[in-house]
Amino acid sequence: MSSVIKLMHRLAVFGAGLLLGCAVPVAWSLDVQSPGAGWAEAYRTGELVIFTKDVEKGRRIVAIAEVEAPPEVIFNVVNDFENYPNFMPYVIESRVLSRNNDSEVVAYNRIAPPFVSERDYPLKFRMTRGTPANSGVFRSEWTARPDAEPEVKGVVRIRLNEGSWVAEPISGGTRTRLTYTLLTNPGGLIPDFVANMSNTVAIPKLFKAVMTRSIEKARAEK
To answer: 14 pLDDT exceeds 50?
Structure first.
């Protein structure tokens, strides 16, 4: 091997080492373990990890990310129902049907996901703000209320939809460990490849939307 080739080889190895040295901390920066037996890791990047588990009713999902925004900012974003069509992926209609003070809301959402018919789902949300008593953790939890709004012809009503957003303060409350949980059955006839897209496309897009809007809001409030 000539001296020039040897030098090129060393530079290539050194460059690869630099890339790996930069990539590894990012890939391992989000330390998230499986929720337990039966869960499969469906997606992992340096920003987001998704686990799934098929059950008799449908599919359970747990997704976890860390966001460069305080928990309260994220809490306000995920509960900004009227503005969902402006930033939430696939949402084409979102309305508040009823509101009981600031802790309980019934809202209606209609989505237009790719490859399948439109879906809709009325949900009842219960919101809990962070306080010193609960370690500053903000929660938004929901259950399906399929009969809260008349069905729309040509739109599939999702009758199983239970989940939550949990925003836990980290880094002194300047950042957030954000956990999304979902148990759902999308209804209708859906090809497997479309159902699996929720793990690798839809949920990452959802997190990207929430993270981007939350960071923008946090910067605007400074």
So the answer is: no
**49 with 64: CB under 8 angstroms?**
yes
H or E element: which one contains 25?
A: helix 3-27
CA distance 26 to 51: 19
**39-60 pLDDT per residue, tens:** 999 999 999 999 999 999 899 9
Q: Which long-range contacts (CB under 8 A, 24 or more apart) does 45-52 make?
A: 45/204, 47/207, 47/211, 48/203, 48/204, 48/207, 50/199, 50/203, 50/204, 52/199
Q: In angstroms, rounded to a whole number, what is the distance separating the alpha carbons of residues 27 and 24? A: 5
Total residue length of the chain: 222
Alpha-carbon distance of 76 to 63, in angstroms, equals 19
What does each C-alpha distance from 190 to 25, 185, 212 come to in angstroms?
38, 10, 30
